[in-house]
Specification:
two-stranded antiparallel ribbon, alpha/beta, 401 residues, 6-stranded parallel β-sheet, 12 helices, TIM Barrel
């Protein structure tokens, strides 16, 4: 700004323009904002440059424009946001199993949902739990009727998954999808093999599907075992990139329950980090609860250790972004299924289908996806209008949703 000097004006009048007018010094420029501080708080006040009355002089330099968040100049401030629809539900789940959300920021969810670079609405993940795959017939008296399958049934399941448009994803893809709706195939399957395995068990089963289709498999690994050859075999397939080892406890055989000590829970959740760093040079991001047993406190400890996901053995349904079927109520018809609602953290109590039974639910999963797609399209205009009015000024405009 330029200040007017009254003495200079008086001189000019007296000398009758014989002395040229001179410009007074400019006001002290405003201080440059601290950019580090600006990341955490807005600048509340700007320091004044003096007490004199000053004329406004346009800046001589073009200021750096602020990022355009939304076309607020053309937005009618009197627009009323429409009421958002209720969340998607389906009759294809057990009546006691209810979809739960885990992100409460509506604008965050809508932005992730309708970002064209993210997973499309209705994208589902079907997580399948494998134990033993028998080369011959399964003997329920030895292996358990619900936890093992024959090689013939295994191959049939894998073929059906592929024929119906499913594609296998990795645990990292699963985490990215569940947290940010990162793009994955519309029908995704997460294949998890429980317990320690020798390399041969993977070579005989999943390897051909990695070769043919690029499908990778997750191994929930029990880490209390110092047999060097077993660690070496698993480290080899981990390094080859098609078997991804995640945590399945340390002692493992003693499930975490309400009577478990704090020390034991911390051992079970913490020791896998030490062992996997030592043998696999990796940090697990998922915890597969041994026996499917968990508690609220155990889930809290899991979060302390920075686990991103946790898996039960409850086959309640597929999952979608910000949509996990759980229950708050014990079910007498399914007494072994621990209610997850007590935990209050859906991402740490994700459901899994059992492999011998998974084929029976393929159409259910596909139907839930189709219903979710139709529901999203039906409500798209309302959600986008809400986003434009309420969310765009702070979360940014959506590009070609």
């Amino acid at each position: 700004m330029t200040h007017t000097n009254p003495l200079r004006i008086l001189s000019t009048l007296i000398l009758l323009t014989f002395i040229a007018a001179a410009c007074a010094p400019a006001a002290t420029p405003q201080p440059t904002p601290d950019m580090d501080a600006a990341l955490t708080q807005a600048v509340a006040t700007i320091q004044a440059g003096g007490t004199q009355t000053a004329e406004y002089v346009p800046p001589t330099e073009t200021p750096t424009p602020e990022p355009t968040i939304a076309p607020t100049a053309t937005r009618d401030p009197n627009r009323t946001p429409p009421a958002l629809p209720e969340g998607f539900t389906t009759s294809r789940l057990n009546p006691l199993d209810t979809p739960k959300t885990y992100i409460q920021d509506t604008c965050q969810v809508l932005k992730a949902k309708w970002d064209p670079n993210n997973a499309a609405p209705g994208t589902v993940v079907m997580t399948i739990m494998f134990h033993g795959i028998a080369k011959g017939e399964v003997n329920p008296a030895i292996t358990g009727a619900y936890h093992d399958m024959t090689m013939k049934d295994f191959n049939r399941l894998m073929k059906d998954l592929k024929d119906l448009g499913f594609e296998a994803i990795t645990m990292q893809q699963m985490a990215d999808f569940m947290y940010t709706n990162a793009k994955i195939p519309q029908r995704s399957v997460l294949l998890i093999v429980d317990d320690r395995k020798h390399r041969q068990s993977f070579d005989d089963t999943f390897y051909q599907y990695y070769q043919d289709w690029g499908w990778k498999v997750v191994n929930s690994y029990i880490t209390l075992d110092e047999r060097p050859e077993l660690w070496q075999e698993n480290a080899a397939v981990e390094a080859e990139g098609w078997v991804d080892h995640q945590a399945h406890g340390y002692v493992h055989n003693e499930n975490i329950t309400a009577s478990s000590s704090e020390e034991y829970m911390r051992q079970e959740l913490g020791k896998p980090f030490e062992m996997m760093q030592k043998y696999f040079n990796k940090t697990p991001i998922a915890y597969i609860w041994p026996g499917g047993s968990f508690t609220k406190r155990a889930a809290e400890i899991a979060r302390e250790f920075k686990y991103q996901l946790g898996f039960t053995v409850n086959p309640r349904g597929p999952v979608m972004y910000n949509w996990v079927p759980l229950t708050d109520t014990a079910d007498p018809a399914r007494p072994s299924f621990i209610p997850e609602g007590q935990v209050g953290d859906p991402l740490m109590t994700l459901p899994r289908y059992w492999s011998p039974d998974a084929r029976n639910y393929l159409d259910t999963v596909r139907s839930i996806s189709a219903e979710a797609i139709a529901y999203a399209e039906q409500n798209k205009a309302v959600e986008l209008e809400y986003y434009d009015i309420v969310c765009a000024p702070t979360h940014g405009a959506l590009s070609n949703p």
